[in-house]
Structures
1.
Amino acid sequence: MKKIKNFFAEFGEYLLLMREVFRKPQNSHVFRRKVLFEMKALGLDSIVIVSFISIFVGAAVVIQLLLNLENPIYPDWIYGYASRKAIMLEFSPTIISLILAGKCASRIASELGSQRISEQIDALEVMGVNTASYLILPKIIASVVFFPLLIILSIFIAILGGALGAIGLGNLTMHAYIEGMRLEYSNIDMVFAIVKTFVNAIIISTIASYRGYTLKGGSVEVGIQSTKAVVQSSIVIMIFDLVITNLFM
């Protein structure tokens, strides 16, 4: 019962914080610079890990399909078709979002938590700055803008990785792989991936910001709240993954 009460109390605090976050920024010039900085920190700095994971998992998806669906009754194009569906609908928008939750949510929570315990946030509030909007909104905007771009990049690299996996195993020709990739392609798949990533970006940035901004305690609490930010973001991502999949499909 106590855990349920704590959940609703924290959820109420979260909603009240978001109300403060989405107010008009006080200094548009400084705000734009903050957004660009967060795009670099949360987006550009994530390109390497997203690309690295995507190319290997894309290859693994194709290899697993070739090994487990090896049957003369299946046409060769089925492997490219099934790989495209798996990559676009689940792997890139969901698995990569979980990777970004681990990387970006911990960074956001620890950064805001450190600013809270060092009283930097309190100093800004004394000067009349809306710290919720000034510190959190640029992170949300950067995530919402850049995470879908990372997912599009992930899809492209995972498909290339799948081609490398097919070539490496030697059981599938590039012509058959590309034919499967192109077969019955629908823009709704890409829209689905982008919408899911858009929602995941909001989940990651807002939950992590809440955990860091409302931190109470010392430096030990920074690590605890960072861990909570990653775990809670991952859980909510999986819940919304099911909800959005049911709505679209």
2.
Amino acid sequence: MDMTFIVVIFLIGFIGSFVSGMLGVGGSIIKYPMLLYIPPLFGLAAFSAHEVSGISAVQVLFASIAGVWAFRKGGYLNKSLIAYMGVSILIGSFIGSYGSSFLSEEGVNIVYGMLAVIAAVMMFIPKKKVDDIPLNQVTFNKALAAILALVVGVGSGIVGAAGGFMLVPIMLTVLRIPTRMTIATSLAVTFISSIGGSIGKLMTGQVDYGPALIMIVASVIAAPLGAKVSKNMNTKMLQMILAFLIAATAVKIWLDIL
């Protein structure tokens, strides 16, 4: 690995992980397209879709736990929601990540594009006011949360994401969880999901260890910084940034597929 390669991969990991900590996603919504398209711009060899999904799966494991650590105080982590969604998404992510080895490169990208479109649509749906609800009085439909987490786990496991970019819209729009609790809790569920996703990718030989290690180092540094910024940002602004990022990624992926 030459210095250009190390710097480019580190910056991709840093930017994606900063966004991860700030918005409560694993960061793959940013890093997946960046890993696909940015290295060739610097004359570096392009990663395949399977390689990108493998690197993302392992990296998200570290980015999410670093973000959770930054949110550990303040009552932002909903332990009941983490338990119900965490178990379901762990099962789903293992199934999806293991099964992804049987899909073509285009198949992986199509699944990713479909997930991004669904998440983008959900982010633009008008949301009822939930940020005024005291954090210790938040309730949710437990069965619905578990079922949705299982579905997200399968889809996100296929593309090497931990599902944070799907979990956030679901928590905000369907389960009606306050924004800051959504961000913190999503990171915790994302961490659990990434365990199953990482195991599946490692078992099927889809992880390039060199780039993955570089991105892990970037994650541990950047994710807590993003979480710190998130605590001081307006919740509507946080929602708008995530909606824009998801929509832009969906458009780019589908333009390339079509």
3.
Amino acid sequence: MEIRISDMDDLGRAAREFRAALGENRHVAFHAGMGTGKTTFISALCRELGMEDEVTSPTFSIINEYRGGEPEQKVYHFDFYRIESPEEALDLGLDDYFDSGALCLMEWPENVEAFLPEDTLHVEIETEEDGSRVMRF
């Protein structure tokens, strides 16, 4: 599937469309280069899901937890950019997060590829020449 995001004003529509396509998937890996808009899209998706917490990049904390929605739910937002070894990834307790039933949204998943659940939905985000984005999954 493909979702095009023409500009920042189009994020809400794209997040609604992605949410509908997400179905029962609980593990989502966002593959994209630096500055492509992974965190910006995840923020729009969390707003669409009704998360009450402010969505920020977990670059230094590695994991952020957001709560909200009807009924109350959790979303885990990971940024694996700074993960340098399998041991470091395991020390985070990834299995506990992945087995929690909460939605797990992951940036830089290639750094923990060996630990991703088999049912992970992989999303590629590319920037087009006109500055728009294309998400493919």
